Sequence to fold (346 residues):
Amino acid sequence: MFRRSVVLVAVVGIVLAACRPGVATGDLQGVVLETPQAKGSFVLTDTAGDAYDFGERTEGKLALLYFGYTECPDICPVHLAQIAEVLDQNAELARNIEVVFVSVDPDRDTFAEIREFLDHFDTRFVGLTGTHEELASAQEAVGVPPARVFGEGDDYTVDHAGWVLAYAPDGLGYSIYPFGTRQSEWGNDLQALASIEPGG
Amino acid sequence: MHTLVLSVIAVLSLAGCGGGAEGLQISEARVGAPTGPNAALYFTARGGPDALLSASTDVAGDAQIHETVIGEEGTMSMRQVPRLEVPAGGELVLEPGGFHVMLLGVDELQVGATIEITMVWETAGEVTVDAEVVEPSNTIYDMEDE
Fold:
């Protein structure tokens, strides 16, 4: 719990809980953004090798976006496993959600490795990557700090944003999910966000 | 007197939690089922002072002690650390988002399987424990809802 507090404090610099008339963000248990964020737009390449336009492909859907890498054994699998567990238990929710994982380690992660990594959680999860330049633009477009390589040779690690971004079907981000989000909070919020319809 | 009784009970109840050395006790040893080339081992150690210096297992090419650090911007960084201390009378907790032993180049491991980990501790010396392979979402104990 201590670490969870640290995470929350760390994120408080950019976000503060607030209400927005018309949208029931009070029901959200994640870290609610002071001002809802418009969905950033970027194009990367999916694990089938096709161009993937994030804005276009997630239009009208609940979208979750997370930047990580397949060699990350600690927090990346926990985030993804928690989301997969909610979808396992809620088929209706699973029908209108796009869960997007972006590998920020394009030098090591192949498309096949990203696909295999995601299939451990849910075969419907979308895996993307791109050149370093494309990845930098994507991270800038959605307002997360750029991932950075730490270490030399093949034995490096990648510093990356630790939270999952969420966009409701109306195209706005109301909340983010730092590491430490409880399973029950994921369940509650995915349901709540999915009900924020476009124009509603 | 009361304290003494409690101490005796504590020692009795901790005995048998694993760990081959008197004093040091390892409990809750678990490995998240690998989803990539690496996996993470977590456990709780009591009975210090002692320090974990290294670990190894037949199911991985290498094992390193790591710490996940949360930066000011909320960035997650993973760093190798040379040792992990168990304070006298305290505990060392390895858990997601904090410390873990990273198993590099790990074999395919099925949930429910048990793997053997050999650790080298500064005082206790070589300690071998069994770790259960669990779903990645079950590596966290204090985030469970019950």
In short: The first strand of chain A starts at residue 31 and ends at 38. Residues 72 and 197 of chain A are 34 Å apart (CA to CA).
